[in-house]
Design a protein that fits this description.
The protein is of the alpha+beta class and 385 residues long. It contains twelve helices and eight strands.
């Protein structure tokens, strides 16, 4: 997945328009039952990051019970039996080989929507979270209490099945539509290597987060923000937000670094969370910079400028995103000394042509008005910044 997502098509259709935030929006949609058309799909990176235990196991004569043959992550021992009731095949289930012989699916192969009933001794990869006791010795009662690693907390989408040299997992290919058992592009070697890479990143990040100094912590998190593993980037940004006021100068340097241009909005959000009111002067300085940009470039824009150059980089959409985040941040911390800058920015913004002709809402203008009211009210209080 790219480091910046482009779900937003207009400045008023959605809020914070780039990168990490939109994964969070996507996650919230996935877990919200109101969005019934979206169903579970196996995600190797997400499950490998979230799972506490990843094992290669074999099916047994008891449906829903598996025996560990090789741990890839976690503390499970070879020979441990795992009882997972959600993985019991239904009475109509058949082996994958049978579905392959009769499949008519145009979208994935074999295309079955039920958990396969593989012969005893068939291999699976289980991506699991937790367990009541992972140290049950061989021959004892199966370990229960496992939870799925899937983003929608679905056990069916937390498993990979083997059929010969091929791997299969449940994916929602069409929405609306049921998840179907589909052949994966990845080989067993691919999966093993990715799990090892993610596990290594997780362990290294845990070591880097053990430092107490916020500035050093932020410096160490930099490398993870450019990882090709999305859950790594997401976790790093979350931890950056918790690094404290001493991390503000480091985060500010990152915002100005072209290498982090696609993460600028999220970095501003992290700066606000890390610094609180101590970030107020930095946010104000950056809003002053945005004020000068819009004063210089805004009047030359045409109505509907948001939808121009949709297929390439737009400095105006980028500045819009940064401006939005700065205003939201100043409203969050109620930094009173920003009032004059915000008032001036509101005047300048009034000269910028309408970004989206399909909507009458002026999102940034409305946010400015709200911020001005909040800062004026805060200025009347006697509590210092």
């Amino acid at each position: 997945m790219a480091s910046s997502l482009s779900y937003r098509q207009s400045p008023t259709s959605l809020m914070r328009p780039t990168g990490f935030f939109w994964l969070l929006v996507l996650v919230s949609l996935l877990v919200n039952s109101a969005f019934a058309g979206i169903r579970p799909s196996f995600s190797l990176d997400h499950s490998a990051w979230k799972a506490t235990d990843i094992v290669i196991a074999t099916t047994t004569a008891t449906d829903g019970t598996f025996e560990v043959v090789e741990p890839l992550k976690g503390d499970l021992h070879v020979g441990t039996r795992l009882a997972i009731s959600d993985l019991r095949p239904s009475p109509e289930a058949e082996p994958i080989a049978s579905y392959l012989a009769t499949s008519e699916s145009l979208h994935c192969h074999p295309g079955s929507h039920v958990i396969p009933k593989q012969p005893a001794g068939s291999r699976v990869i289980l991506f699991l979270v937790g367990g009541t006791d992972v140290n049950v010795p061989e021959g004892k009662a199966p370990v229960e209490g496992w939870k799925p690693s899937d983003i929608m907390a679905n056990m069916q989408a937390s498993v990979v099945w083997f059929e010969g040299a091929d791997l299969y997992a449940f994916m929602q290919i069409i929405n609306p539509g049921l998840p179907l058992l589909c052949k994966l592009r990845e080989s067993e070697t691919d999966v093993r290597n990715r799990v090892a890479e993610i596990d290594q990143n997780q362990a290294q990040m845990a070591m880097d987060l053990s430092v107490s100094d916020g500035a050093e912590r932020a410096e160490r998190l930099k490398k993870y923000l450019k990882s090709n593993i999305f859950p790594v980037r997401l976790a790093a940004m979350k931890e950056l937000s918790k690094s404290g006021p001493s991390a503000v100068p480091v985060i500010s340097t990152m915002i100005d670094d072209p290498a982090f241009a696609s993460e600028s909005s999220e970095l501003i959000h992290a700066l606000v969370d890390a610094g609180g009111k101590t970030a107020g002067s930095e946010l104000t300085r950056r809003l002053q910079r945005e004020l000068e940009f819009w004063r210089s470039k805004g009047p030359s824009l045409r109505r509907g400028w948001w939808n121009e150059n949709q297929n390439g980089y737009s400095p105006f959409r980028a500045h819009n995103s940064v401006t939005y985040e700065l205003i939201i941040g100043l409203e969050k911390i109620r930094y009173r000394n920003a009032l004059s800058t915000v008032v001036e920015f509101r005047k300048v913004w009034g000269s910028v042509p309408v970004a989206d002709t399909s909507s009458a809402e002026d999102e940034i203008g409305n946010l400015c008005e709200k911020l001005i009211v909040a800062l004026k009210a805060s200025s009347r209080s006697k509590v210092p910044d």
